[in-house]
User: Fold this.
Amino acid sequence: MRWSQAFIPTLRDDPADSEAVSHKLLVRGGYVRQLMSGIYSMLPLGQRVRDKVMAIIREEMNAINGQEFLLPNLHPREIWDRTGRTVSFAEVLMTFDDNKGSPVVLSPTHEEIFATVAGELTSYKQLPQMWYHIQTKFRDEPRPKSGLLRVREFTMKDSYSFDIDEAGLDVQFDNHRNAYLRIFERLGITAVPVAASSGAMGGKESVEFMMQSDIGEDSVVHCANCGYAANREKATSAIPDVDDPPESGALEVFDTPGVRTIADLEVFEGGAVADRQIKTLVYVLDGEFALLLLRGDHALEEQKVQDGTGASEVRPAHEEEIRALLGADAGSLGAVGVDGIPVYADHALSGRSSMTTGANENDKHIRNVDVARDIAVTKWLDLRSVEDGEGCPNCGEPLNLFKAIEVGHIFKLGTFYAEPLGVNVLDEHGKTVPIVMGSYGIGVERNMAASIEANHDDKGIVWPLEIAPFAVVITVIRPDDAATMDTAEALYANLWGRGVEVLLDDRDERPGVKFNDAELIGIPYRVTVGPRGIAEGMCEVVDRRTGESTEIAIDSAADEIAGLLGV
Amino acid sequence: MRWSQAFIPTLRDDPADSEAVSHKLLVRGGYVRQLMSGIYSMLPLGQRVRDKVMAIIREEMNAINGQEFLLPNLHPREIWDRTGRTVSFAEVLMTFDDNKGSPVVLSPTHEEIFATVAGELTSYKQLPQMWYHIQTKFRDEPRPKSGLLRVREFTMKDSYSFDIDEAGLDVQFDNHRNAYLRIFERLGITAVPVAASSGAMGGKESVEFMMQSDIGEDSVVHCANCGYAANREKATSAIPDVDDPPESGALEVFDTPGVRTIADLEVFEGGAVADRQIKTLVYVLDGEFALLLLRGDHALEEQKVQDGTGASEVRPAHEEEIRALLGADAGSLGAVGVDGIPVYADHALSGRSSMTTGANENDKHIRNVDVARDIAVTKWLDLRSVEDGEGCPNCGEPLNLFKAIEVGHIFKLGTFYAEPLGVNVLDEHGKTVPIVMGSYGIGVERNMAASIEANHDDKGIVWPLEIAPFAVVITVIRPDDAATMDTAEALYANLWGRGVEVLLDDRDERPGVKFNDAELIGIPYRVTVGPRGIAEGMCEVVDRRTGESTEIAIDSAADEIAGLLGV
Assistant:
């Protein structure tokens, strides 16, 4: 491709509101343009990279016996109702009635529809199956951000495994885990598999692939000693016990004027240190109130509420709701004597005594609370958010907490979909059993962006060779000089003839502009052809990653470059 | 791929309500499944063919300097409002408000958005550009039918050309015309370019590519003598003049009890032959009434109303509307003396006299109508539907009328989009001018189906080699026989090693079932490997298209098959 004829609209300035480097570089490099919030157009360079990312994914999926499908984006909403996901996906689901008035869902994922297709399977003899497609997904994210990292319309490779039993699922899950690690390696991404919440996907076990990054929206807990790794939404930790007095005295309500927070109560005379307080939160779980209890110095991990209670919709209660329910404001709430509202308590409160909590009356607290004696706990749960430096739940060594971008997510779904949708086969004993499913997702454009987050410098993108839009850019100094252009054209044709993708920068621009653009868009090798070099029979090859420059003979340039590229 | 492990759910029975052969064979061959009305899933075989069709299209687009993009499916409705297409595409447009309440359009095509991206072009020096993508389209067809031929969600390659002037557009239009003809040839489709209406696409000239087929929804008029070809929506013809008496007498209202139709009036005593009657139709054009006049023996071509008047929404008036407007029912309508309603008359009525028409009073007609004297024609238009056997408008020879499937459509858009969207560049004189656009569309799945309509026999599909899901199927007779399986496996591995796509039918099924399935799914070459042949060192190769069978030596089988395939 000749740059002079191509649409590569590079820009000098960063886009407005860009936080992520990948966002800035994709826009400045002429790879993408935003059409509206969270909706992007891929320009030619972007599409070239996207295509290469998809090719890698496809190759790795085929290598684990994947069969490629293409399932549609418009689904009958009725199928989503049957699995309950019109509710659990409600926040991001786009749904409307078609022109005949039938409710349709614009697919955010395809578990239901792949399961429906699998309804044609009849016998264990047809299993295992591994099916995938690379298809658009629509998710109406409330806060799209960071360019391609969080959008509302994107391409995902999603695969689905179908097995007769859990053992089969385990094999397919491992196959995917390994295939995903190969994909990330090829994309120049270092990703760690971590235990994760399955969220709205259902099922019981899931693994996310996390790339460490300060602009990531996830938090990961990792133990450098034993390798334990989990999304903070799911992570646990070992924390020291708090010594309580052997027995609580009698409950005692006392005045706490002006005390509104855990910290207030710590410094209040007659108050209590944070780890001897009970924090009481009021939440609405699928429309019903519930109290969530934590140790005063612990923070709630909201996803754990969902996972622990099975609720689809989880939100903090509003001020007025709290007042109407408990007769007091946040800051003076407690679960002592509360009846008729489910109370979920974090394990760290188990067995605790002589605690202090709100009295459900403004400016009053209660001391001497013995949790077992005074609070009717409906269910003990893990609700606590793990903090940096806490002990690893496996080996006790200090945990590391870091921000990360989720670049892939794989799920053991079990029979979560097969049961409501009636996807059964006959097993070897002739018994009807639900198919055991897994699902596995990797976002194409998000991984493009993640690769840039991991592969850039202050001049621009530094693409891994395998996904670069072009392997080589020939930068012509003085394209108006016929001999120079002839030399450049000959090299261009020679390299294309060997299957090397080359961009010919034949623009009528100053060399500095061309060098900067080549670095910005991140082509792995730049070959500079100019009258001065030609006079000496030489051209220059610059490695984008190392910046290393080599003079090579023009006569052998094509051979040498092909050698560098391994073709 | 091994058939025993693949998902190729062939069926014995045709799907319900299938009219098109391609629909039957795609479903029976395990290529597609319907999810809901007009919405299909591509199963693995279908996706393989789809992928090959896209590869051909991509190759031909790149060969005419196409740059591949990927533009999104969710568009701000505001952009569609600016070009007026929320109205002109209303019938099939899917549109809804996102979760923030912003109106979005689910794209049925991408003229607006490509034009928006082209807004970054600033100078004639950057032109020409040719941009395309292969992207999902959503059109809420009121009557999806015939399997993949008319659906509500499909993949289309749509390209867009951008030029400084009409001359540039003409070049790009010709490039596309030729590229499309190459694509159809590679898909095994015989397609004729015909003049067509631009409909809701805007612009002034368009060419459709039509494949003759009885299940087609379009009608094409073709002159075998001079090559004139047009969609019936747009076609004209030469018809003999009707001799009228030199002058009309005075208008005369007469009773016509029970006369409701043109045919009634022909046989009514004192009536008139059809070609001396005026047919009066009441239509609603963008919400306003209009009268359409045709010769009694001519039929209305509704698309011509739209094209001739510029109206976006065109429908016949309801019975009650007609009665309220003219005071009479259909069958007694006429335009004589009508005032305040636009009257559009077909050219065939021009200069006619002594005609008969309805009197706008039930059971009464008027004779001696001189069109020029008695009817206030607002505009003369071509409204008439061409009939088989009428004269070619170019050479006068009899025209041929046939049913056809539209397999591609290309449009000269001019500045239809650039003007409302403000897509301008500076020309060589430094003057701001709107970019001249073309758009070019080819449906991927529709062309898959069209290829089957053109390439099948009573046993199943007969794929052209280039788009067959596999080039070769190795049918193993007695896969339980180790020596047979070893021989088949060796051939399978050998052919894959040469890049030949092979399906290995290792299923535990009777040979007849396997032969039938291989023919049904349409693999170009079947190689039969069985114990009897192996004993003689031979296997059988059958050509799907000709049915010709050849015995070849197993030792040289891979070479010979590769030779047949030209690899």
In short: Chain B has a mean pLDDT of 96. Chain B has three domains: 19-204+408-453, 252-381, 470-565. Residues 166-186 of chain B form the longest helix (21 residues). The domain at 19-204+408-453 of chain B is CATH 3.30.930.10 (BirA Bifunctional Protein; domain 2).
